[in-house]
Design a protein that fits this description.
Layout lengths: L2 H14 L7 H24 L5 H6 L3 H7 L9 H16 L3 H18 L2 H17 L3 H15 L5 H15 L5 H17 L3 H17 L3 H19 L2 H17 L3 H18 L5 H17 L2 H19 L4 H17 L2 H19 L4 H17 L2 H19 L4 H16 L3 H18 L5 H17 L2 H19 L4 H17 L2 H19 L4 H17 L2 H18 L5 H17 L2 H19 L4 H17 L2 H19 L4 H17 L2 H18 L5 H21 L1
Amino acid sequence: MNKILFFALFILLIIFNSSVGFADTDTECLLPVNKLYDELSKTYKSSKSDRKFFEYIENFDDTYFLSKLDKIIYKVDEKFINKLLSISKEYLDLEMLDLAYYFSFIANKLCEKRNFTELQGWTDFQIGLVFEKYNKQFKAAEYYEKSVKILENSFNDTELYTIYKKISDIYLLGDNNEKTTKYLEKLIKFDKKRGDYQNAVDKYIKISNQYSDNYKFDSAIIFLQEAEIINEQFLKSSKNNSKFFYNYGYIYYYKADYDKAIEFNEKDLKIRLKIFEKNHPSVAVNYDNIGIAYLNKGEYNKAFECFEKSLKIRLKNLGKKHPDVAVSYNNIGSAYNDKGEYDKAFKYFEKSLKIRLYTLGKNHPDVAGSYNNIGNTYNNRGEYDKALEYYEKSLNIQIKTFGKNHIDIAGSYNNIGISYDNKDEYDKALEYYEKSLKINLKTIGEKHPYVAMNYNNIGATYNNKGEYDKALEYFEKSLNIRLIKLGENHPDIAANYSDIGATYDNKGEYDKALEYFEKSLNIRLIKLGENHPDVASSYNNIGNAYNNKGEYDKALEYFEKSLKINLKILSKKHPSVATSYNNIGGAYNKKGEYDKALEYCEKSLKIRLKTHGDNHSSVASSYNNIGEAYDNKGEFDKALEYCEKSLKIRLKILGDNHPSVASSYNNIGKAYDNKGVYDKALEYLEKSLKIRLKTLGENHPDTIKTKKLLEKVRKILKLENK
């Protein structure tokens, strides 16, 4: 017999001889119970299972236990069951959880068989207590609920309040809104009955917060309104009004109704300024919240103003090295990052990181957050290897802190995937997106907006790979979740429509593309206003579709709208500005205004080389467009020079079978055709057609264009050979 089992049985003997006072019949009944435990314990240990002992026991069906105890089933009485419960409680006090569980479990099975209903309720309650000690909170709640169902009429008000609170506290940890609401509302009835209205208000706020966390915002508002009614009738508390406004601000922020979020946060701010002095740290939190809403609206100057106010309060009250000061620096850095002023963003993120390392230590989640934000900035600057370096730093801390299956780990995998996608290493990107998706599905379920984000990113990568039908499949999955969780007019829905539109554009289905781009634009104009980067992006996308349709003046109209917004709100060297210049250049090229085309394409190239370096797909796109313009101007050698530069980059980062590589082959073939070097034209056009047939299909407009040009070249070569 091993030492642990010997100690357990030694304790059991002490319990037998204590005040519990077992009679001979009880001792006779207890022997098979002990023997069964001994048997189960040995087989459990020999199985070397990773499961807990209670999970191992639960694997057996009831007939197994009842067959082992069949000789005593009809001898046991309620007194014996109570003694088993006493043994379980003793073991629970000693934190010997396997034994505590075993004796309460056996007591429960015997009660069930003998129809000792009330006692079964107490055994359910005891099992719940054991599961709480095991840190299996939801299993505990399951047994507490069984217990209260049986014993509700036996408990006094104080006991009922205690057990309802236990159950509600557990469900507040999860996402079961109905269960949380059920038990908190039972508690609220008690609170109202004894005139404890503040507790009732706080509980309604808890219910509201859980609905908010689960993206059920309309329900969250209903329960917040219930809290307001109680406050207005009985308390008239300004502090409560502050809580309400704060929570309304939170709800409307996540509903992407940023104007309402600002309105409620400003109401909250007004109360806090009355309750506290103007430099109180809680006032700084309001300025942060208002600033973040302005940031999402693309109103960067207003965001900076709020973040600076927050920083000033924190520096005055908390000193230069407080973690909340790091939060302010972080927020200012995020605003500069969104604005495209990356050097300034780095400056503030580094300040934030320095404080966090000093105050929190190198392995704190907030330090991981700082590394992540620095990684985001390098990613936006096109320095993807540097971005990956910081994402990996963030990931290493998170794994140390949270283990391998935490939502923050999923976030890091997602960011690493984005960097690989931007590097055009699509298979690696997919590998990390799938890792992120796997964790999110396991931890937050299949209908969460983060899962929708995973599907969207996977779809975007398939789009970049030229696998358009797969891309659409994932975009639709993402869209379905977001429509359920976020409603029809959320900016994330607009992003989905935009991505679906871009895929149809790549497929050559331009009218379908325009339909989705217009849907996206309408939501963005309603939610974000005219002067937002996402609105500029929508105008750009619509311009692309018209350009591909051959409606160049319409395309230029939308490209100019996009450029105007980007120049107004972003840095002049922002990648989005480069995209606008590139697209305007492309439209002028197709219109036959080649010098204008070259002017804009050169502007774009200059920004892209500075932000992304020599080997980026956007740089290849600029070279390609410049090459096309020179080809159309009749400067074929210059055209070939730029198209070869484009091809070299694309082959390096996209591989041999990408539609963009086909585009480069096509343009080189076209330049050789115009130059009269038909054998070379044939070579490159055949390469282009082979890829386009494989990736785009025979009915895509680009495939048809290459076929026609190839037929023309073949006819010329045939005539020359004759």
